[in-house]
Amino acid sequence: LAEELDVSTIMYKGAQAIVRYDDGIATRFHAIFPSPAYGTLVSYYSRRFGEPTEISERTIAPFAQPREVNPIMSWRRDDPLSGEVTTLEVRRYDDARGTFPDLKHGVLMLSNATSPPIFPVLSALDLMPTTGTN
């Protein structure tokens, strides 16, 4: 999937993910991908994990553009031993960062049900590199 996850953005470049750790354990993963790769990613995860356990869509409001549908495919796993619920979610457009939706990139998120948001107080603008010093 490295080719489908290869991006060049203000957040990062290449096929990478942002990971949240709580008490030394990875609890949430957030990776973006070029939105045209959405179908390829959904097909890959459907072959690997079976049909999505949830199919939904949200209406998004891009900046200065008409509203648009954002399809979402989710795979949910309930661990019978620990009782922990893990969800893998693929959205065609990245609307998970609390800013205007990004129509150029989709988002892939893996998390357990009890983990806090990956960007609780941080915005994408906080991650932008600075170009000079004051």
Descriptive account of the structure:
The protein has one helix spanning 38-49; strands at residues 7-8, 13-14, 18-22, 25-34, 54-60, 68-78, 85-91, 105-112. It has 134 residues and is mostly beta strands. Strand 3 (18-22) and strand 4 form a beta hairpin. It is globular and about 45 Å long.
Helix/sheet category? mainly beta
| Major beta-sheet overview | 6 strands, antiparallel
Helix share, percent: under 10%
Radius of gyration: 16 Å
N to C succession of SSEs: EEEEHEEEE
In DSSP terms (H or I, runs of 4 or more residues), the helix count works out at 1
Strand content: 35-45%
Low-confidence stretches: none
* Mean pLDDT figure: 85
Head-to-tail CA distance between termini: 41 Å
Which outline best applies?
Answer: globular
Order of strands across the main sheet: 3-4-8-7-6-5
Instruction: State the total count of DSSP E strands.
Output: 8
What is this structure's SSE topology?
Blueprint: E1 7-8, E2 13-14, E3 18-22, E4 25-34, H1 38-49, E5 54-60, E6 68-78, E7 85-91, E8 105-112
Antiparallel strand pairs: 1-2, 3-4, 4-8, 5-6, 6-7, 7-8
List the defining traits of the structure above.
two-stranded antiparallel ribbon, 1 helix, mainly beta
Summarize the structure.
By secondary structure, the chain is mainly beta. It has one helix at 38-49, and strands spanning 7-8, 13-14, 18-22, 25-34, 54-60, 68-78, 85-91, 105-112. The strands form 2 sheets. The chain has a 6-stranded antiparallel β-sheet, covered by helices on one side. Strands 1-2 form a two-stranded antiparallel ribbon.
